[in-house]
């Protein structure tokens, strides 16, 4: 609002969406096409979600001409921002909206992953709830498949419902070439070069679980996304076969022993 404080009402109305997109803290938003905003089908149900809905819509679509006091205008402005955010969540999962968000993603407009092992992979905004006023926006990294808080306090206050819980997954369904190769790099805690025992044990367990999952997916001919370490898994498969044979042999021995000992017990003898 301060950027247009010296402009006339008509000039302000003409530039509302430009002002909103260019305002500090709104860098995560893309511009919604006017024809999408004027199609009432795309706004179904929002009239009950937004106060002063019609005035807010007029302001967003640059046809606002209501003569009102400053307090009323401020309330309509707040409703317009909320309306734009709710429509934005619907728009970014359309073909045109995905294309616009893709351009911002390629330029890392949403930031880069703070995890060192992800090597500054670009992030995507997402919500953890589709209901407004519940959770703030988070940032999703497709390489480590984890979410993070925005660095800037200006972005930390954005409602997560303005991006929704599905957008960051839909964009990779539409553009599968964007799916990054998952990294197997992990930080290993060490003391003077030696692995910390408890952490090392946890890492070994996690690696075992991950490798088991990759083996199952590979047998099902499902792409895992992990490109490195396949040779290690093949060697592990051979070791697992040997271990399985040893286990089977031990089980057969126990069963055979049980078959000998059970009759002796039944006869009242000492096993």
TrEMBL record:
<dbReference type="InterPro" id="IPR016149">
    <property type="entry name" value="Casein_kin_II_reg-sub_N"/>
</dbReference>
<dbReference type="InterPro" id="IPR035991">
    <property type="entry name" value="Casein_kinase_II_beta-like"/>
</dbReference>
<dbReference type="Pfam" id="PF01214">
    <property type="entry name" value="CK_II_beta"/>
</dbReference>
<dbReference type="InterPro" id="IPR000704">
    <property type="entry name" value="Casein_kinase_II_reg-sub"/>
</dbReference>
<dbReference type="GO" id="GO:0005737">
    <property type="term" value="C:cytoplasm"/>
</dbReference>
<dbReference type="GO" id="GO:0019887">
    <property type="term" value="F:protein kinase regulator activity"/>
</dbReference>
<comment type="similarity">
    <text>Belongs to the casein kinase 2 subunit beta family.</text>
</comment>
<protein>
    <recommendedName>
        <fullName>Casein kinase II subunit beta</fullName>
    </recommendedName>
</protein>
<comment type="subunit">
    <text>Tetramer composed of two alpha chains, one beta chain and one beta' chain.</text>
</comment>
<keyword id="KW-0418">Kinase</keyword>
<dbReference type="GO" id="GO:0006359">
    <property type="term" value="P:regulation of transcription by RNA polymerase III"/>
</dbReference>
<dbReference type="GO" id="GO:0005956">
    <property type="term" value="C:protein kinase CK2 complex"/>
</dbReference>
<keyword id="KW-0808">Transferase</keyword>
<dbReference type="GO" id="GO:0016301">
    <property type="term" value="F:kinase activity"/>
</dbReference>
<dbReference type="GO" id="GO:0034456">
    <property type="term" value="C:UTP-C complex"/>
</dbReference>
<comment type="subunit">
    <text>Tetramer of two alpha and two beta subunits.</text>
</comment>
<comment type="function">
    <text>Regulatory subunit of casein kinase II/CK2. As part of the kinase complex regulates the basal catalytic activity of the alpha subunit a constitutively active serine/threonine-protein kinase that phosphorylates a large number of substrates containing acidic residues C-terminal to the phosphorylated serine or threonine.</text>
</comment>
<keyword id="KW-0597">Phosphoprotein</keyword>
């Amino acid at each position: 609002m301060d950027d247009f404080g010296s402009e006339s009402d008509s000039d302000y109305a003409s530039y509302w969406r430009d002002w909103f997109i260019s305002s500090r803290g709104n860098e995560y938003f893309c511009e919604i096409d006017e024809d999408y905003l004027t199609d009432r089908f795309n706004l179904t149900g929002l009239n009950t979600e937004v106060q002063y809905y019609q005035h807010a819509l007029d302001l967003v679509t640059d046809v606002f001409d209501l003569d009102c006091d400053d307090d009323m205008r401020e309330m309509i402005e707040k409703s317009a921002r909320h309306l734009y955010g709710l429509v934005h969540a619907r728009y970014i999962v359309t073909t045109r909206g995905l294309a616009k968000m893709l351009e911002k993603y390629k330029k890392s407009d949403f930031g880069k992953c703070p995890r060192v092992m992800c090597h500054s992979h670009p992030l995507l905004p997402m919500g953890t709830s589709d209901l407004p006023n519940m959770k703030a926006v988070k940032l999703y990294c497709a390489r480590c498949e984890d979410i993070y808080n925005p660095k800037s306090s200006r972005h930390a206050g954005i409602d997560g419902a303005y991006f929704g819980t599905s957008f960051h997954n839909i964009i990779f369904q539409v553009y599968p070439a964007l799916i990054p190769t998952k990294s197997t790099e992990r930080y290993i805690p060490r003391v003077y070069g030696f692995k910390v025992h408890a952490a090392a044990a946890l890492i070994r367990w996690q690696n075992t679980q991950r490798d088991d999952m990759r083996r199952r997916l590979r047998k099902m001919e499902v792409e895992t996304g992990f490109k490195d370490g396949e040779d290690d898994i093949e060697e592990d498969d051979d070791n697992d076969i040997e271990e399985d044979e040893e286990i089977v042999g031990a089980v057969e021995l126990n069963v055979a022993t049980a078959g000998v000992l059970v009759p002796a017990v039944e006869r009242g003898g000492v096993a």
